[in-house]
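Hey, sorry to bother you again with one of my protein questions. A protein chain has come my way and I'm curious about its shape. It would help a lot if you went through both lines with me. I owe you a coffee for this, so here goes:
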Amino acid sequence: FIRMALIPVDFEVTAGSTYPLDFSADGLPEGWIAIDGGAKLNLQSEWQHDIYEDVLVPAGVYRAAIIWQNDTSAGTQPAGAIDNFSIAPGNYTPVEGPVSADEGYTDDFEGINTWTLQNGEMTNAWCVGDAVSNGGSKALYVSKDGGFTNAYDIYSPAFVFADKLFRFDGGAYDFAYDWRCGGEEDWDYLR
């Protein structure tokens, strides 16, 4: 499954075969802010477009995190994929080198990848590539074979995530993205 969240920059998260306390298909650890409507994303093999408006974000630095988790029992393809991620119209700046004052942020994953891929030693891992996309030629997706396919090994457990640092001035923000994910009813999904 996929979950989407803003994680306070001081919260330690590590890729592996287990996940943080209080993380689940329908729950997030204290201090995390859901940008996925508060529930897992899965059971959709076709691209979906989600918009979450007026998400209240206190001022601070957060990791926008796209999280994939799967267990070892069953599941359906495809693995999780994200494209056309955007934040608008609030006041925030990406944190990377010099702090940008640009308003709004969009990533269609067509250019140089600026997300950190936190995969550890997992077989099912995030990558940016051209095995799948929704509009252009690339997307961010989970792959069991280094990006050749947007497929996962259903018998190899994983908790992996892609993240990017943002500084928010505080207030209401809109988050939008395209996603698809097969998975399993209660385990293999995007969040």
